[in-house]
């Protein structure tokens, strides 16, 4: 929000988002206005990062605000976090490989330009997005639930679990779980499961223990931020599995945002109508993962290949 003096002020958090009540903690949705004038974030069109504040930080893991690049200035232009800046730059790099974020410092009055590399350098190593290692993957545990006969799709609740690949075959392989899943009360970190590929997803099928293969017992009970909704056609055995939610953009994080396409369209329309009131050229929607702290921009392209529920 922007006050009468043209300065940005912190806005109250929006309502929590849910896909299925009780499946996981709600994800926070934030609306940040994209300013005019070649994306220079200065008065009167400032953008406050409402995603992370000092009270959100993990003890001993300080997340600084983006620093002004003018020598001996020490300012923090508009108190924007590196997590927000990284998401902003990555989004515009999709269409402009040379894009840099421009911030006007209120302390020294000079403009700083930031590349993606310079912003990532401001994020502590323990909080940076990390690519999956060569032997890592996300195993998907799928629990199917009954659907009405009029529905054309099967429906699943699915949990993403980070795992280490132990063996690989043409149709699947073996993987050792790195974390304890919520949907499978009988599984713990260190257990080995056999998985099969369903399109681009490795779906867990059985527990492998003492040279035996045991069926996986899955049930709804504990909540988890790595749970989402998935659908697949009832009439095509080779149909792709389609997620109904957006995943965290950190490749090594299993978290799933609860935002659905219909909720995104509603938020997009609200943001569009708010933008002229705040003097912004257009609005952007940001999501921040509560698991790893990684932020991402969400637009229509984010839902390509997803079930637009």
Beta content:
25-35%
Order of helices and strands: EEHEEHEEEEEEEEHEE
Overall shape: it is globular
Strand line-up of the largest beta sheet: 5-6-7-8-9
Mean pLDDT: 80
Structural class determined from secondary elements: mainly beta
Number of helical regions: 3
Low-confidence stretches: 1-61
Rg from C-alpha positions? 22 Å
Tell me the distance between the termini: 30 Å
Helix content: 10-25%
Query: Main β-sheet, in a few words?
Result: 5 strands, mixed, barrel
Annotation, overall tally of beta strands: 14
Secondary-structure map with pairings?
Blueprint: E1 29-34, E2 40-41, H1 82-93, E3 101-104, E4 111-114, H2 116-120, E5 136-145, E6 153-168, E7 172-177, E8 192-198, E9 201-209, E10 212-215, E11 227-233, E12 242-243, H3 261-278, E13 282-288, E14 295-298
Parallel strand pairs: 2-3, 5-9
Antiparallel strand pairs: 1-13, 3-4, 5-6, 6-7, 6-11, 7-8, 8-9, 9-10, 11-12, 13-14
């Amino acid at each position: 929000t922007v006050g009468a003096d043209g300065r940005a002020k912190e806005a109250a958090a929006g309502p929590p988002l849910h896909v299925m009540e009780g499946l996981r903690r709600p994800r926070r949705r934030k609306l940040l206005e994209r300013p005019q004038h070649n994306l220079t974030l200065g008065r009167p069109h400032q953008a406050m990062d409402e995603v992370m504040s000092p009270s959100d930080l993990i003890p001993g893991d300080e997340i600084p605000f983006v620093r002004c690049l003018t020598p001996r200035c020490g300012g923090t232009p508009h108190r924007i976090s590196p997590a927000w800046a990284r998401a902003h730059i990555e989004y515009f790099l999709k269409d402009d490989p040379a894009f840099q974020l421009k911030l006007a410092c209120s302390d020294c009055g000079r403009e700083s330009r930031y590349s993606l590399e310079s912003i990532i350098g401001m994020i502590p190593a323990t909080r940076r997005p990390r690519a999956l290692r060569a032997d890592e993957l996300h195993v998907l545990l799928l629990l199917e639930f009954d659907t009405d006969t009029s529905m054309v799709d099967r429906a699943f609740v699915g949990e993403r679990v980070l795992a280490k690949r132990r063996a690989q075959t043409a149709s699947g392989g073996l993987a050792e779980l790195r974390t304890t899943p919520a949907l499978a009360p009988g599984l713990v970190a260190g257990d080995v499961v056999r998985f099969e590929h369903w399109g681009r997803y490795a779906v867990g099928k059985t527990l492998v223990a003492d040279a035996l293969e045991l069926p996986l017992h899955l049930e709804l009970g504990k909540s988890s931020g790595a749970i989402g909704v998935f659908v697949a056609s009832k009439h095509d055995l080779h149909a792709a599995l389609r997620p109904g939610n957006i995943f965290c953009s950190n490749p090594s994080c299993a978290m799933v945002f609860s935002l659905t396409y219909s909720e995104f369209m509603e938020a997009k329309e609200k943001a569009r109508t708010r933008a002229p009131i705040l003097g912004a050229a257009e609005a952007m929607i940001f999501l921040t993962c509560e698991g790893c702290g990684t932020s991402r921009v969400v637009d229509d392209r984010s839902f390509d290949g997803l079930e637009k529920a």
